[in-house]
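Key idea: predict the complex, not the pieces.
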Amino acid sequence: MGLKKALLAGVAGLAMTASAQAQYSNDGITIGVLTDMSGVYADVGGQGSVVAAQMALEDFGDFNGKPVNLVSADHQNKADIGANIARQWADTDGVDAIFDILNSAVGLAVQQVATEKNIVSMNSGAATTALTNEQCSPNGVHYVYDTYALATGTGGAMVKEGGDSWFFIVADYAFGHALEADTSNAVKNAGGEILGSVRAPLSNQDFSSFLLQAQASGAKVIGLANAGGDTVNSIKQAQEFGIVAAGQSLAGLLIFLTDIHALGLETTAGLTITTGWYWDLNDETRAFSERFAERHNGVKPTMVQAGVYSSVMNYLKAAQDAGTDDGKKVVDQLQTMEINDVFAQGGKIREDGLHFHDMYLAQIKSPEESKGPWDYYNIVSTIPAAEAYQALEDVRCPTLNN
Amino acid sequence: MASKTSGNWKGWAQFAVAIAALIVLPFFLYPVFLAKVLCFALFAAAFNLLLGFAGLLSFGHAAFFGFSAYVSAHAAKEWGFTPELAILAGTVVAAFLGAVIGLLAIRRQGIYFAMVTLALAQMVFFICIQAPFTHGEDGIQGVPRGHFLGIVDLESNFAIYYFVLAVFLIGVMVIYRTVHSPFGQVLKSIRENEPRAISLGYDADRYKLMAFILSATIAGMAGSTKVLVFKLASLTDVAWQMSGEVVLMTILGGVGTMLGPIVGASIIVTMQNYLAEVGQLTLIIQGLVFMFCVLLFRRGIVGEIKHRWTQMRGGKDEPAHLSPGKATGETDGAPVTHG
Amino acid sequence: MIEFLGVPLPLFMGQLLIGLINGSFYAVLSLGLALIFGLLNIVNFAHGALYMVGAFVAYLLLQFIGIGYWPALILAPVIVAGLGMLIERFLLRPLHDLDHLYGLLLTFGLALVLEGTFRHFYGVSGMPYSIPDSLAGAQRLMVPTWLTGEDPVFMMALPNYRAWVIVASLIVCTATWILIERTKLGALMRAATEKPDLVRAFGVNVPALITLTYGLGVGLAAFAGVLAAPIYSVNPIMGSNIIIVVFAIVVIGGLGSIGGAIVSGFLLGVIEGITKVFYPEASNVVIFVVMAIVLIVRPAGLFGKGA
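Result:
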């Protein structure tokens, strides 16, 4: 098949140079949604991300007179599986851009493949700042949020409210360490102090031991530098051991709308969180979420799914304007655009690949405040992009000349 | 491996056809996928050396496969090793790891052996999560395929496939030579009847340990090679589920046959490749295949074909179980020649 | 504040207690595993999966029939034990005369099927199961005066449910031990595996005894699953990592030793708990390190009687 395809591509290429229109390889655009379909992030992205991508394709319409192809796959939260699928998509399916890519490890691996194959990685799901720092790529865009933005938002806000001494429970892998480091900086910059931290091994179910250590530290705030099931378990067990009742407060550093939905407002009321988007921001977001919910079992979109919608739309615009599906050129084109849509206002894709846009500080409603399912956040304030994200001159991206 | 004298040229002809097929295959199928099949086939063949010919069921072979993947990835990425040296580094480390785990595990037999290898491999898994050089969850990413001998660029999918094919053939040759050497004969006799082998003056534990180390080494070689294909070393390769997968490949293909593990690995990898969209379904199917093989199909695909073939010609062949000591049809302890 | 090895004493005591709670799960699980192994010579790889099924049965009973925690604590193990007896009768018995490794491989396949099936229907995010109302709340524990010579210091809030876990597992472990070692049925079970022919000659239905034993062992796993449900969310992958830890514990205790499995279950839980204070990163590994040491020093296990 490889040979046949290569020959065909060659013949097609020759024919196209004759007509001087050889911009789009494999005849048009194919996009891939690579997400967690069955694991802990399946609700955050998963099938909902595919729905969001489909909505974007419908809203965009035909691309140069042809429909855009959509493929999707489950990376099972494993970097190797994700990278394999991305490589195979680029090699044999003619995929031009990959979306969603939840999970930091998978995100980094896929961005690497995208660079190698010169396609685009539009990441809405992963948290790690490494995507735009140490492992930045001219083929990558980091769209929705990163650990830095979460840490500065939540960390700074809690210190202002008087939570000026912190103890961290850290998921013992790269993501957790990054979240801890970024939040520690934010807390210190705001005038708070760090009393200690404990690293909980991966695939640990019982957090009681770590919670007791946090309690013994006497810190006012217990920072949960973890995600998904770890966060859910720590919050539940903190309640079981009466930690919040005894006066300490919890800071969930990465919490998605669907986590709140699973935990319930009784357990989570009052939590301060940072989010890149919320469905109930304005009329436009509400209308979009209504449409999304109709097609996805009545579930409101998470920030990741909204990010997938927006990133697909903007990728297609950029590819059309650039007149090519060459990954680097499309990303260059994206960097000249201003993003004004349902997801962001005045957003910019920076040279390091970061989507520089405003974030939101939110507090979880109490059961009495909530008007029903999915009505969970009180948006406390908007965090301007310049406060939320790393300044470009601080970015440790080796391909940027600064 | 039919009668030796007349079958010799026939065997060589078959071998030549197989090689030719392996050479043209990447023109028809995605080369990266084929390279993956070869890596797992070599892994399964290495595992089979231990289970099929020494009668030891290790449930911890992922430790060797995955840990040497990390070593080879680190050597290629951080130290700039050429691909062949990176693989060598991974392989040597697997040998050492094999010696350590082997020394501990060999003290127990049968089921105990399986559980001990499993637990020790799980320890290696947790070390891989913690050790800084493995980068935990992220794994080692962006491993360069490099230049073979510093000259031939392996970056293209075709180049890497032929490189993997060469490694695969070397590995399989080593296994073939080992099985058909006096050492292999002693191993088999230990598998058939350990007390008898000991009474004949063989230090059974030493032989088993050597087989364990050799199997670990080649498993490590397979893992190191896989890293170069995918440019990535990750926790998947050290997790205990991987140890289970290699057992399944071997049993499905046929324990104790040369070709079986290769066939089994091809089937399982193909299945995983085409069912990638439905992760849980793969799990269920693998489990069902496992149960089916254990209950009704203990010879495996290749073993079953061989069995039918020999039966048709009225020959006698090996019984359909792992270590025949307990079952009724005890085979004659093949006369052992000292090497 | 009084310190112990550089750690405040109240914290240290609290961790010991938490270790004991986790040890309770280990003890019930390793007891079931050791029971099946000691009497049937099968390494039950599906033990973790059946622990998960136990939790799920409790969850499903609540969801569909509205049966709460207390009845489920009895019902779920009985249902899973029934399932286990079917497994033994139709899947394991045909392998009885073959190498025991086949039992291990079959149950491994079974574990994959069970886990895959529940993942297919429920994902891996986990289902909530609340603590029964009668056990809600917590006790404020103090470090007693006789230990420190000082006024009582606050140690920890011990949730009532966790205290119940320790009590329940102690009761179940003791009862099982008495059943096996001190009753006529237990004696028959033991005899049936040692000298099946002789027992058969006395007119005892040996295969039925074996099926019953497997059911009992598996029922213990399900019991642990129901106990765990309110603490951890009910999750299809909850059994896949714990099973290997439990293997290690059974090897440490001495394969087949019933008392050894119970004691080392609690012991290793405590050791793990202490590790979480001094070097939390190693808490996943410590049990395997202990296993390696035991294998070197005493290959038959702490309570084993030889390989």
